[in-house]
Design a protein that fits this description.
- The chain has 8 helices and 7 strands.
- α1 packs across α3 and α4 crosses α5.
- The chain has 227 residues and is of the alpha/beta class.
- It has a 7-stranded mixed β-sheet.
- It is globular and about 45 Å long.
């Protein structure tokens, strides 16, 4: 490893872990956050973590969910134009993506990141929900899974919609937010099928169904519905 790469890795680990510690304390004290079944996150190997998406809080919530692994994520490329903020996003593990077009370079980066043994978190719905419900996922998630030939860790986040919904300028404090991990999903049967949009859609549908099951499990265990 070159000296420049070693320095970059050093800053990545320091910035990432410091930010994780800060946000972990913040979520625990202000939002009473619990991480449920983090044991389902394997200690090694490349995966895609697929989450429901209803809040600005969702990316940092998955980021602080376990100390054993670092989660990469995708962020709008325009956010990287600001030097300090762009560097921070880089060291937090962000992968820039163009939102207004098909960004094949970003897709290739996600695939190579997963195949290199890392976890990349994705939101199959594509954008934050306006009503707090879980909606259909996009075929793009299935495509990335198919091309990566990886397993998927389904994740359900509860309470973040009420804490900071898309229509709100600022978040509301002291609303409980929790995150629950499901067991990794394997798609060996789908990987044997022809690579086409229908196969991508099938993979995405399986993922979304599992996220909904996690929601049902969480609500059953906790006894009340909080979007």
């Amino acid at each position: 490893m070159k000296l420049v790469e070693k320095i970059d890795l050093f800053f990545f680990v320091v910035v990432h872990n410091f930010s994780k510690l800060f946000m972990w304390i913040f979520f625990r004290l202000v939002y009473f956050t619990e991480i449920i079944d983090s044991k389902n996150v394997p200690s090694t190997g490349g995966f895609i973590a697929a989450l429901n998406h209803s809040s600005f809080f969702d990316p940092p919530l998955i980021g602080i969910s376990t100390w054993r692994r670092m989660f990469r994520f995708m962020a709008r490329d325009t956010l990287f134009r600001f030097p300090v903020w762009g560097s921070l996003l880089h060291y937090l593990g962000a992968i820039p993506i163009k939102r207004a077009s098909v960004d094949r370079n970003a897709w290739d980066k996600v695939i190579s990141t997963v195949q290199s043994g890392h976890i990349v978190s994705l939101f199959p719905e594509g954008t934050r929900t306006l009503d707090g419900e879980i909606h259909e996922g996009k075929a793009g998630t299935g495509m990335l899974v198919y091309k990566s030939k990886c397993r998927v860790i389904p994740v359900y986040i509860n309470g973040s919609f009420k804490a900071w919904k898309k229509a709100s300028l600022l978040p509301l404090p002291f609303i409980k937010m929790d995150l629950i991990f499901g067991e990794p999903l394997s798609f060996e049967e789908q990987f044997k099928k022809e690579e086409k949009k229908e196969t991508y859609i099938e993979i995405t549908a399986i993922i979304m169904a599992e996220i909904k099951k996690l929601k049902e499990k969480y609500l059953l265990t906790h006894g009340k519905k909080i979007k």
